[in-house]
Write a structure and sequence with these properties.
There is one protein chain. The chain is an alpha/beta fold. The protein folds into three domains: 18-210, Alpha-D-Glucose-1,6-Bisphosphate, subunit A, domain 3 (Alpha-D-Glucose-1,6-Bisphosphate, Chain A, domain 3, 3-Layer(aba) Sandwich), CATH 3.40.120.10; 218-444, Alpha-D-Glucose-1,6-Bisphosphate, subunit A, domain 3 (Alpha-D-Glucose-1,6-Bisphosphate, Chain A, domain 3); 448-547, Alpha-D-phosphohexomutase, C-terminal domain (TATA-Binding Protein). Helix content is 34%, strand content 20%. The chain is built from 17 helices and 23 strands. The strands form five sheets. Strands 1-2-6-5-3-4-7 form a seven-stranded mixed sheet, sandwiched between helices. A hairpin with an 8-residue loop joins strand 5 and strand 6. The radius of gyration is 23 Å and the shape is globular. The relative contact order is 0.11.
Length: 549
């Protein structure tokens, strides 16, 4: 992957998005529904797009919101709908559009007091708090919407729906909402019920509530907050101009932590960011380039961390630098499953099939079974909700886990609790997460991990999404005997939408993107960078052979 010459440097004025034009495009551009890129498309993280490209405009959000209102009625969901948004400029506009439609459809909508920002995990937490003890068919169940494109650049907008289980909606729900929204759009939005914002602001269906204190006060039931406070360790946090800002300030106040917020303001252009690997502004808290400003401050703190704009991802900075997300997932797993004594001994560990095999080795070391699923946090929802899983994590720095007593906390990614867990383990053991990872390296080996992205048209993506094991005619991968060829995830048996080949010391997985014209090859080796390169080269050859005309 080529690195842009300005990667890691502070954004210049020429790098900033023209916010007034972006907002104007949202309200004035009508999407061309004959173009696939202008249609509503729910990928692994909801619908995303850019208003100037006709892929995230007012008509999209009106149609999606109407579809959600109709889906709730179809599924007999009559409780409150908790809605949150992040600090992307388009999130503000989409938030307004959604309220106008939801209130008109007699949906009881709960918003943060003052129409402020609300992280993804806080919406999940609120849904589960309301639904606790309810049966699956209770008509008073709550659900939620989060308006966010996650860590994507400032010109993006995004919309996610979370059903009563609290986490990302499954395929059945998203396909229905997507199809209905596109039907509404193709019918020139004639089926949309809508009231004006002025009416919506004081409407009887709109309910302002404080999301902050209930979530922050509940943290003591999942993190040893007293241990962190009593240790006096100096913590640094960078919300990256996102929705967790007010939450971090309240966490510091409520628990009297020695915590410094290094980025205590919102800027919709995200002009304070350092450029990512490709020279774009991207609020990716797992990227050393996007996180350069906090990394530069690492010596000022015992431990520092960051979240992306909607607060569903974490970045951990120790005195030795930014941790690799895969490495920290393994650290969290070992610490949690050896310290949470109320968790059942048969509780499994959730990982996606493209996460590091270091997790498998750590789990074997502590006697826990791995539950491997396809890419997408939605595959962890039922396991976290039922207690089958104590932890679910993705290689892209997203994770959630259970409370001390083994009950569900959130069924969506929560970027705040992994940060606080890093503080807990540092405070209670004297070892920060990086030191714990070094112990893993000594015991289990050091993995070399990489990801390749390659342009791919619809034909190639369709072939890769339907690959079968009988298309593979090799017995070795980079000089090692192939142990398994997977097209379905070992944990839940769900289709991968691609292929994964494993050996004793390495593996690769290939899968087409659900939102971009690319495919991705993930690969890992425990025999070093040279062996990783051989795996990647052979993986490319396999893909080329499988997709040739």
């Amino acid at each position: 992957m080529a690195i842009h010459p300005q990667a890691g440097q502070k954004a210049a004025p020429r790098d900033l998005t023209n916010i007034p034009r972006l907002m104007s495009d949202y309200f004035t551009i009508r999407p061309d529904m004959s173009l696939p890129e202008c249609q509503v498309s729910f990928g692994t993280s909801g619908h995303r797009g850019v208003s100037s490209k006709g892929s995230f405009n007012e008509m999209h959000i009106l149609a999606i919101s109407q579809a959600v209102a109709e889906y709730r009625k179809k599924e007999h969901i009559g409780g409150p709908l908790y809605i949150g948004m992040d600090s992307h400029a388009l999130s503000e506009a989409a938030f307004i559009s959604a309220l106008e439609v939801l209130c008109a459809n007699d949906v009881q909508v709960v918003v943060q007091t003052g129409f402020s920002y609300t992280p993804t995990p806080v919406v999940s937490h609120a849904i589960l708090r309301h639904n606790r003890g309810m049966k699956a068919d209770n008509p008073q169940r709550a659900d939620g919407i989060i308006i966010t494109p996650s860590h994507n650049p400032p010109m993006y907008g995004g919309f996610k729906y979370n059903p009563p289980t609290g986490g990302p909606a499954g395929t059945d729900a998203t396909k229905w909402i997507q199809a209905r929204a596109n039907e509404i759009l193709c019918n020139d939005c004639k089926d949309i019920r809508r009231i004006s914002l002025n009416i919506a602001r004081t409407h009887e269906n709109l309910h302002p509530e404080d999301y902050i204190d209930p979530y922050v006060a509940d943290l003591r039931n999942i993190i040893d907050m007293d241990a962190i406070a009593n240790s006096g360790i100096h913590l640094g946090v960078n919300p990256l101009g996102g929705s967790t800002l007010d939450f971090w300030d309240r966490i510091g106040e409520m628990y009297r932590l020695n915590l410094t917020n290094t980025q205590p303001f919102i800027d919709a252009s995200f002009g304070f960011m350092t450029l990512d690997h490709d020279g774009k502004i991207r609020m990716d808290c797992s990227s050393p380039y996007a996180m350069a400003s906090l990394i530069d401050m690492k010596s000022e703190f015992d431990l520092a961390f960051a979240n992306d704009p909607d607060g569903d991802r974490h970045g951990i900075v120790t005195r030795s630098g930014l941790m690799n997300p895969n490495h920290y997932l393994a650290v969290m797993i070992e610490y949690l499953y050896t310290t949470r004594k109320a968790w059942p001994a048969d509780m499994k560990v959730g990982k996606t099939l493209v996460s590091s095999a270091l997790i498998d080795r750590v789990c074997a070391g502590i006697g826990r079974e791995v539950y491997e699923v396809p890419v997408g946090f939605k595959w962890f929802v039922d396991g976290l909700f039922s207690g089958l899983l104590g932890f679910g994590g993705e290689e892209s720095a997203g994770a959630s886990f259970l409370r001390f007593n083994g009950e569900v906390w959130s069924t969506d990614k929560d970027g705040i609790i992994p940060c606080m867990l890093a503080a807990e383990m540092t405070a209670k053991t004297g070892l920060d997460p990086a030191a714990r990872h070094e112990a893993h390296v000594q015991k289990y080996g050091l993995p070399a991990y990489g990801r390749i992205e390659t342009a791919a048209d619809a034909r190639v993506r369709k072939i890769l999404g339907a690959l079968s094991a009988d298309r593979i005619h090799i017995t070795e991968l980079a000089g090692e005997k192939i142990d398994s060829i997977l097209t379905h995830a070992p944990g839940n048996g769900a289709p991968i939408g691609g292929l994964k080949i494993c050996t004793q010391n390495g593996w690769f997985a290939v899968r087409p993107s659900g939102t971009e014209d690319i495919y991705k090859i993930y690969a890992e080796s425990f025999k070093g960078e040279a062996h990783l390169k051989k795996i990647q080269e052979q993986a490319v050859d396999i893909v080329n052979e499988a997709t040739k005309p």
